[in-house]
Each structure stands twice: as C-alpha cells, then as structure tokens.
Design goal:
With 394 residues, the protein is of the alpha/beta class. Helix content is 55%, strand content 12%.
Length: 394
C-alpha cells in the first residue's frame, strides 16, 4: 500500500494577514518543512490543499517544486480526493502541525487508521479535543477511500476536522505522541522549535574536527539560515577556497594555501548543516561535495611538489601514500563499528594539524606527521574491523 500525504494550508494564523503555512521556520516556511518531512517519510504524492495562494505561499511551493518534490496543489477537497488513490494510505497533516521525522515514520508505518494524540492538560484549544482526556496532535493516518467518501459531504465543514472525526468514529487507534509535536499559530510559537531544529542540524558522521569546528559552523548557519544563500552557494565557496590552495602551494605561498584550506573547512560543515536544516539531503550528491576531497588531495600533493625542490622527491611520494592510507581507512570503516573512530584521521582535520608545523616553518615535518597519523589510523581501523568480523563468525 502506497503512502500519500495531505497537508492543509488554508487557516489564517494569529499573525495578521499570514497563513499558518507561511509562518517562518528555520529560514523557510512551515509548509516547506511539513512537505519535506512527509517526503522523507515516503509520501508520494504530497497534496497541499489551499483556498488562496498569497505570494509567500506561492514562493514556498515553487521552491518545493524546484527541488522535485512530488507536490500537487488542490483548491478543493474534491481536487484533493482525485489526486489520491483510494487504496493509498494517507498521512493527514493538520494546518500548522509539525513533528520530527522519526515520529512521523512510526505513525505512517502502521497498517490501521491512527491519530496522534497529546494529553488534554497543557495544550490549548488549537489542539482539537478528541475525548475527555486527549487532544489531537495534528497528525493522523487514514485511507484514500475515506477522503473520497468525505469530500462530497463537506459543505461548510472543515476538511481536516471532518476527516479526523470520521477516522475516530471508524475506530482509529489513539497513538500518544512520544516526541516533540506542535501546532504553530504565532511567531512566538516558533522560537523554541527553531532552537531544537538548529541544535539538531549537525551533519552525521562528523569526526573530531567537526566537533571542534561546530561552534563556527553554527554561527555561519545561523547567519545564513534566513538569507537567500543556500547550501549549494556555501559549498561552492568552500570548494573555491580549496581550489585556491592548490596553485598557492605549487608557487610556494604556503601560508596562503593553508589559510584557504582552513577557511574552507567550516564552510563545508555549515553547508551540510544548512542542508540538513532545510532537509535537502541531496546536497551530499552535489558536484562540489565530490570535488572537495579531490581539491584537498591536490593541495596535499601540491605541497609535496613544492617541498621536493629542497627535500627531494620523497616528500611527493609521502603525500601520495598519505592519501592512499586515507582512502583505505575510509574503506575499512565503511559499515563497521570502530572503537575511537572519532579520533581517527579525517580530511578536514588534516589541514588543522598542519597549523603548528606551519608556525614552526617545519612543513615537511608536518607532511611526515600526516603520513604517520593516516597510517596509524588505517592500521587501527583494520585491526578493529577484522576483530569484529572474527567475533561475528565465532
């Protein structure tokens, strides 16, 4: 059974002249986050039901279409019903309702109709009362057939409320919310949620350098979150700075090359954070994301070539072997649990490890240290990976 989504986007918010759907959230609009979470949960199509399309809503919908989300805009309940197969499992998202992806996936994974609930106490009238002890958290799963049956009978009734009532009358399960949920109506409702979203926007798999650079990345992310600049532009800036390092090292401008690499590292992390914040998971497949490792590797080789005139061609070989160990390390760690993985060699951290050697004007010593660090990391990961496999076989 396929999963579809129906998102209501027609209620006026508590802010004059603003729909709930267009309240600003994490640099975009609420409707964009709702649609992206629904898409991440596997919903296709995503039907947004509207009564009018003010400029802010039109802009938000255009951004979603540009990112190729399976979006359909319906002007009436009948149009929405036509867009959804009666055999689809339908994820109903109330106007202004938001939750995290894990909870939405859990709700969508069930087989029967279900409504997400919160306790009656502590929640305002904006959360519809279901019975004497619970209110609706704004999310439910129903069937496409129920929408088809409900659409002709609406008249002046509210679609999301009518679907909710019919689902409850049909015996839908009550599922207590076990994570953060909210129905947003005013800008004052957004502050705490935005803080949680920003705090959770760290890119997965960050090593020790990512932990150290996290405060800088968060500052860059917070400065750009409400700007037109997207992850692609910030990632492009990171790639541009990395590219500068290659000719700088070749011409012997060591400090220029190193500073360019150092400046590129937090920008890369900020781009990934902003992408996660805006739920643009495809950013890791952008051309700059593939180009950055190649540029960093080229910068290391360029440094080796520049040092070869004084130290001999062995430093060039040292650079290539260091890169080989880094590639081998990544392969060994793929899909494996390695103890102390946080401390192992990583591309962004290698640039920062060169800094003390640069201050001492001991560049070839820094290159030797990077070789030893990458080699040691590889042999440790290999030992851990093979011991894990042996235990599994036993």
């Amino acid at each position: 059974m396929a999963l579809a989504a129906l998102i209501a986007a027609y209620h006026e918010s508590g802010e004059p002249g603003t729909l709930r759907a267009t309240l600003p959230l994490a640099g975009r609009t609420l409707i964009e986050r709702q649609a992206r979470i629904a898409a991440a949960a596997g919903a296709n199509p995503i039907v947004v039901i509207v009564e009018r399309v003010p400029p802010a809503l039109s802009t938000a919908l255009d951004r979603l279409r540009r990112d190729r989300l399976p979006l359909i805009v319906a002007r009436s309940a009948e149009e929405a019903a036509e867009a959804i197969d009666p055999f689809d499992r339908l994820l109903l998202v109330a106007d202004g309702a938001i939750t995290d992806l894990d909870q939405l996936r859990s709700l969508a994974a069930g087989t029967n109709e279900a409504v997400l609930t919160v306790p009656d106490s502590g929640y305002s009238e904006i959360y519809e009362r279901i019975d004497g002890s619970t209110r609706w958290a704004g999310l439910a799963t129903v069937t496409g057939a129920l929408l088809r049956e409900t659409a002709p009978m609406l008249r002046d009734w509210d679609l999301q409320s009518t679907l909710l009532r019919r689902a409850i009358q049909g015996g839908a399960r009550h599922v207590p919310a076990d994570g953060p949920v909210a129905i947003l109506d005013r800008n004052s409702d957004l502050a705490d949620l935005e803080r949680r979203i920003l705090a959770g926007a760290s890119p997965p798999g960050a090593g020790w350098a990512g932990r150290i650079l996290a405060p800088i990345e968060r500052v860059v992310t917070s400065l750009t979150v409400t700007s037109p600049a997207g992850p692609q532009l910030i990632g492009l800036a990171s790639a541009f700075l990395s590219a500068i390092a290659v000719p700088a090292f070749l011409y012997g401008w060591f400090w220029t090359g190193l500073i360019s690499l150092l400046a590129a590292t937090p920008l890369e992390g900020a781009a990934l954070r902003l992408a996660k914040l805006r739920m643009q998971d495809d950013v890791r497949h952008s051309w700059w994301a593939y180009l950055l490792p190649l540029l960093s590797a080229s910068a290391l080789v360029a440094l080796g070539y520049a040092l070869a005139a004084e130290r001999g061609w062995g430093v060039v070989l040292l650079a290539f072997v260091t890169l080989a160990f880094l590639v081998a390390l990544r392969i060994e760690c793929e899909g494996q649990k390695v103890r102390f993985a946080l401390l192992l060699a990583e591309r962004r951290g290698m640039a920062w490890l060169m800094l003390p050697f640069a201050f001492a004007d001991f560049w070839h010593g820094g290159l030797a240290f990077l070789f030893a660090y990458s080699a040691g990391s590889f042999f440790w990961a290999q030992r851990e990976a093979h011991s894990t496999r042996s235990e599994g076989q036993d």
